[in-house]
Amino acid sequence: MNSFQLALRVLRTDGRTRVSAILIAVGVAVATALVLLLVALPGATETRADRAAWQHYGELSEDGASLELAVSDDVAPDGREIQRVDVAALADPTQIDLPPGIDRLPAPGETLLSPELADVVDHTAGSQLGERFGEKAGVLGDDALEYPEQLVALVGHTPDDLPGTAMPQDGFNPSGQGADSFLGLLAGVGVVVLTVPSMVLVASSARLIAARRERRLAAFRLAGATPRQVISMVTAETAIAAAGGALLGWAVSPLLRQAATVVPWNGGTWQAADFVLGPAPTVAIVVGVPVLVLLAAVLGLRRVLSAPLGAAGGHTPKPLRWWRLVPLPVSGALFAFLVATGESQFEGTLLLLSMAMVIGSLTLAGPWITAAIGGLFVRRWRKPSALLAGRRLRDDPRGAYRATAGVVLAVFTGSMALTVLPSIEGQAGALREYADGVLYVETDHDSLRQIAADTNDALARYGQDERAATIGDAFLGDEHALAKVVDCDAAEQLLAVDMRGACEGEPGVYTPYPGVSRGELTVSADFDRPGTSLAADVPVRPMTATSEAAPEAIVDSAVIPSDFTPSTGVVAVPSTPVNVDVVRTALASAADGLQVQSRQARLAGQNSQLDDLQRVTVIGLIVAAVLGGCSAAVSTAGSVLDRRRTFGALMAAGTPVRVLARALRAEAALPALVATVGAGVAGTLVGIGLFAVVVDDGARVLTPWLAAPVVLGIGVALIASSVCTPALRRVQAEPLADE
């Protein structure tokens, strides 16, 4: 009988071995499906980028250009981003190659909308959205969209109507910028963070029959089987479960990919075809994961091969030493030192290495802390359940801690992210040049007055009281201070400054810097051009900047010499939360493709990215916690079955099942809490240090999300302890002589 036939016979006759094989297959299936998904993520982002490549500028083509493009983004009334592409054909439109999903080029005054944007336009007043674009002439196909619900407008123009930001192109941009490197990095982290708990689940499943398998293999060794034959037996037995699990993971991976399509990233969800992985990496993953499991199983046979008598008779674990705690403060001190002093790239590499050392030291210290808790139970508590749990934790802390160790990396990484991200979010958009609610368009001086006039006409037509103002850019004095040329009253309303009554006197120059000499006051349109002198009697009054990005000076337009013309400037309009969409429509329709900017829009974009990161972090933590809880539950069940003689004897002696169940719940829950809470605290402290590196000066923002490790620890503990009573009932129902 060969090894494969022997493995099949064992699986047919031994129920515990079958259960273990099924759980191993489930663990391998989960690991395989997760790795297939995570490895496909960079390619998915590249596919999305290629579909949306036409929405961005390509290579400039001064000679032989077939079209001109102006790319900008807008904001819908519901806060979603709108990608706007203004296009003008420079050649025969029928001869221009169009991207997939676009059946024709819109004529001047026409627009093609994405299905989602077309629906929003149909259900929104024209003054709030639709009048920003031309007449609707068609709908873009899904192949032209980055994600299914993307809001896109392709607006047709004549070459003379395009804004100054338009660029000549030899056709639409054919390909995107490649894979999203940041999401690729997250995917790589996810492969490690989620695969480790999956492999721990596999290991816990294998240990479900560890004692019985060791005795069986030791018997074979004592009967004369060679080490090679023993290895082939284990390989065959594990290969059946691992290969079946890998194939199951490959079979269910389309369902996992379908579930992943609803998780937003960078503004929207995914198309199902985005996550297609090539044959070569798919085969490598489906084959590689079982091979890793087989290697782990073979390496676990060292004791059976070298000392079969010891394996058959059992062994006493060696006590743990206090030195396991030393790496934790050492790695923490090294990390703190590098945070405080590190500046070079080499020191940055050492910083990452010290983080890995912190994770490793947590795993090393976990069993010792578990043993210490067990010793505390034995010394301080006198309840039978506490004494039983304490003895188990003290005598075999490695086995008690092993099942939940896989979640340490995930909780550490998640806690670190949930510390850094809210703190960065608190810094997002802190600098502002214009007052809150102000919408503005940057353009050249020749277009300023026309855009302002058209905007005011639209605002009057919409029945709004707000009016647009022009603000010129200039440099003041020999120091070339950044200045804005605008009426004082408009400056107080539009810019991030506090005039403090300075507008009540004659028009003048306003600056937060005292001591400006009137005799040296000049204004210039460009940094490197000679300035034009202001009148000698122009008053200089103080103002207060309310933001670091506020202008360094304001020059009232009434004191500007008639021969001075700013090169660039902005058209700015104040708005309120009630009429912001109407004001944006008025300004966007007048700007005709120029970017309409606002502080709120920048904040919304930044917060959207941070929300994506937090969402991915929380999903990863939940998956890792479920896998860790399942590992702990399987390990707890295996612990009960391995000690069935002990528990059977205790039950025969009259020990109530509820007392034994309480002891088992304690020994299963405490390592889980130690692992998750310890990793959570360490991740939070490391996150605070990383924030200090990323942001030199900023307040740490601690949110309720930091309680996630404790919640996950409780969840893992509950999952682990849920199998205690059923496992004991099974031991109680079986005759003690079966072992």
Automatic annotation (TrEMBL):
Keyword annotations: Cell membrane, Membrane, Transmembrane, Transmembrane helix
Membrane topology value: Multi-pass membrane protein
Annotated compartments: Cell membrane
Keyword DNA-binding: no
Record has ATP-binding as a keyword: no
Bilayer-crossing regions: 21-41, 182-209, 230-256, 276-301, 322-340, 352-378, 399-421, 618-641, 668-694, 706-728
Domain ABC3 transporter permease C-terminal: 191-308, 620-734
Database matches in Pfam families: FtsX
Protein name: ABC transporter permease
Lineage summary: Bacteria, Bacillati, Actinomycetota, Actinomycetes, Pseudonocardiales
